[in-house]
């Protein structure tokens, strides 16, 4: 009771203190209430391909339980990591599948808190690209293309193309987007460059008008300086001293051409097949000690990045450039006609030309070319003669003599000649084959077959075997063909050929290999003599052995005494 009374009689001052402490506790409790916040706070703008992290943080609860979801309950398409009072949703990389409002939910005991973050995406990753359909050439149309790659949303895109300060084209891409995707948009303009465009620049500007989204850059720009070209033209050649020259002389040819940039000069010579043989990359071409083969069409070309322009000049080297050329229609063979051609190349004027052909001291042909009086270019003239060589012609010299009868011109030489020594060939002949011991052999025997052939030069020997199909199987290039330990399949026709440059001569021999113990179908005279001789020799040898033994018994040997005692 006492204690109760004391409580009931608590002083007013203590009651006030107690009440104040309760109020302070309540204020402290309220200040530590369960809260949730997000970073970023409400919205994030991200470029497609970047890494984006959304963080949810709580206070007033240790530890809370977190969960994430989209407003349409679509997949998160990201990774969630919870650490204490923090939860992070990471999207790597961020893309169209992440363009949602994400809701973070935190639960602490029976209390639940939620907060959302809006993810908005765009793509404007690169500066525009400027492409030209070709080099910029004065007077020729060219198409300029300005590309903006991988842009989203493209319905907010604006593009401008300028040449210097002049706007060439503007374009807004206001068409509706049927689906979310990265698009490469372009702007094309065709114009014709002029001389005034030299030094100017092309400028491609791209702007992404999304004012409600804060991102940088919202404008991108690319500049390309114009390189304007002028194709080569007005190519000119000057020749000093002249386009008609004497053999051994020199000439200097100079070429120039107009263009932008200044054309590079190339000198070439046109070949017989129409192709060009490059000679020089200088504007001046000098040829010294010229010969008639230097005659022809020379081409100068002015070349730069956009084109080329050419000019031709023909040089003619007059005179008597080189010795005649002797050609034969084939190998000189004893008894076979052969044609000798004496050619004088690139001669001018050919109507003053005379050609003589000699064999030893004898003239076998002569020709003057008076019919060519109207020809004003280099000619190759020839004299052809046919004769029948013999072995007596070997060592004789063929002489081709060419004379240019131009007394009014001073040049040397006015007479040229070429020589060729005759070597007359004789085709292989009288080919013979010697077989030892015989062409008919017993199996296991050996045989030598020797071949010889006459000709000039000395024929090469080739041994072959004739196959069943008629073809020849080469065996040896030696004059003697040896077969050892012969077999019956070695039987057949063997062919010897004598070969040189003039022809081939052949001889055949048939080899017959018989089996052991068989009676021969063929008897040679040699075998008959050997058989008869052996029938007499064997008894004689027996008698000699008999008398020799008796003589040995007596201590001496006398064929006469031996015969007497027998009588």
From TrEMBL:
Q: Which Gene3D superfamilies match?
A: Immunoglobulins
Which SMART domains does the entry mention? IG, IGc2
Q: Which residues form a coiled coil?
A: none
SUPFAM superfamilies from the entry?
Immunoglobulin
| Span of domain Ig-like | 34-118, 232-318, 428-512
- Where mainly found? membrane
**Pfam families per UniProt:** C2-set, I-set, ig, Ig_3
Superkingdom as given in the UniProt entry: Eukaryota
Which InterPro entries does the record associate with it?
ICAM_VCAM, ICAM_VCAM_N, Ig-like_dom, Ig-like_dom_sf, Ig-like_fold, Ig_C2-set, Ig_I-set, Ig_sub
What's the name of the protein?
Vascular cell adhesion protein 1
List the source organism: Lynx canadensis
